User: Which sequence fits this backbone?
């Protein structure tokens, strides 16, 4: 194989090339803006799509003069959040507090800061708590361990990982979420560690 064949880019139609160029420019802009901690968390994302989603969630929203590609990426992330909230039942902070028998909202927030509960920040400043994580008056075991294994800071990026990362050694691979719900913490940790070790391929 010649050197030219090794370095030659794949041929794209003019329209597809234009889209590729726009997305590439947006990705470069996001990488340039991100902090070192955000970059490390992005590298740990199990797929390229989730890596992009992570950057979108941790960076401030673009203003009206921002690159169109970057604005489109933010719009796509916002749509994903909307779709998630429409498909996955959630509890309000007061309902989550009651489900766990906690006496104060601060006790709930303390669990969020410790990573032992999944709290999704909303544009209103409030939080939504996916209902699946509450079982018999407690939060499913292993949630904090899986999040630590993935090294994910963003709650929304973590929610995406729970829905998309699957066990690779099963005939019908289960998602991280489904493993945690049935209490199979060991399998969930193994799948999360394997995804992190893959380097976001």
Assistant:
């Amino acid at each position: 194989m010649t050197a030219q064949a090794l370095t030659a880019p794949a041929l794209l139609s003019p329209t597809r090339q234009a889209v590729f160029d726009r997305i590439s420019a947006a990705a470069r802009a996001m990488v340039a803006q991100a902090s070192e901690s955000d970059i490390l968390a992005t590298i740990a994302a199990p797929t390229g799509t989730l890596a992009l989603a992570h950057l979108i969630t941790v960076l401030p929203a673009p203003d009206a003069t921002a690159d169109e590609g970057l604005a489109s990426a933010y719009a796509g992330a916002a749509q994903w959040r909307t779709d998630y909230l429409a498909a996955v039942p959630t509890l309000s902070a007061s309902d989550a507090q009651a489900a766990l028998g906690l006496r104060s909202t601060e006790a709930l927030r303390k669990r969020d800061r410790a990573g032992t509960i999944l709290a999704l920040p909303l544009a209103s400043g409030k939080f939504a708590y996916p209902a699946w994580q509450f079982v018999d008056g407690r939060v499913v075991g292993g949630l904090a361990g899986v999040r630590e294994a993935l090294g994910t800071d963003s709650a929304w990026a973590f929610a995406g990982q729970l829905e998309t990362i699957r066990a690779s050694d099963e005939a019908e691979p289960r998602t991280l979420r489904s493993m945690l719900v049935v209490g199979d913490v060991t399998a969930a940790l193994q799948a999360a560690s394997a995804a992190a070790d893959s380097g976001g391929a």
About this structure: The longest strand covers residues 127-130. The longest helix spans residues 14-33. The chain is about 60% helix and 5% strand. The two ends are 25 Å apart (CA to CA).
